[in-house]
Structure formats: C-alpha cells, structure tokens
C-alpha cells in the first residue's frame, strides 16, 4: 500500500490551483495572490517542501493575468476599430 503524506499547505495550494481552473477569478484577485506569493518567496519564508508548489502557482497566475490582459486588449481594440 502506498502512503502519501499531504500537508495542509499542499492541500490548500492544490485547492487554489483547481479553483483557478474551474472557477473564474478576477484579475485583481489573481494579482493579489501573486503578490503574496512573490512576497513569501522574496522573504524566504517558504519551506523547501512548498517552494516548487508556490513557484508553480505563481507561474499559473502569471499566465492567467497575461491571458486576461491580452483578451482585454483585443476587446478594446475591437471597440475602437469599429468606429
């Protein structure tokens, strides 16, 4: 039998990843979470066990924010191109 040990932090990070995939979060919420992750990483308050998960989450949030900005930019261009 394989035993897997999950910490509360690991479960929470997994939940947040699934939340982003299954639910649409606002750009502002994503940026807030990203800033918190960056602060944690810069202050070196992240354990080695959580480092990869936090870095992955940060990458997902960056991708999400870039896509949101790209979509908004295209929508605005479309509005002004129609006039």
Describe the structure.
By secondary structure, the protein is an all-alpha fold. The chain has a single domain (22-81), classed as Helix Hairpins (Orthogonal Bundle). It contains three helices and no strands. The protein has helices spanning 8-22, 27-42, 48-81. The longest helix is centred in the C-terminal third of the chain and has 34 residues, at 48-81. The model has no long low-confidence stretch (mean pLDDT 81).
Which descriptors apply to this entry?
single chain; 83 residues; mainly alpha; Helix Hairpins; 78% helix; 0% strand; elongated
Main sheet characteristics: none
Low-confidence stretches: none
Number of separate strands? 0
Name the CATH architecture: Orthogonal Bundle
Fraction of residues in helix = over 70%
Taken as a percent bin, the fraction of beta residues is under 5%
Mean of the pLDDT scores?
81
Shape: elongated
Number of helices: 3
Question: How does the helix and strand content classify structurally?
Answer: mainly alpha
CATH topology group: Helix Hairpins
Give me the strand/helix succession.
HHH
Q: Please report the distance between the alpha carbons of the first and last residues.
A: 66 Å
Structurally, how many domains make up the residues? 1
CATH class: Mainly Alpha
Q: What is the C-alpha radius of gyration, as a whole number of Å? A: 17 Å
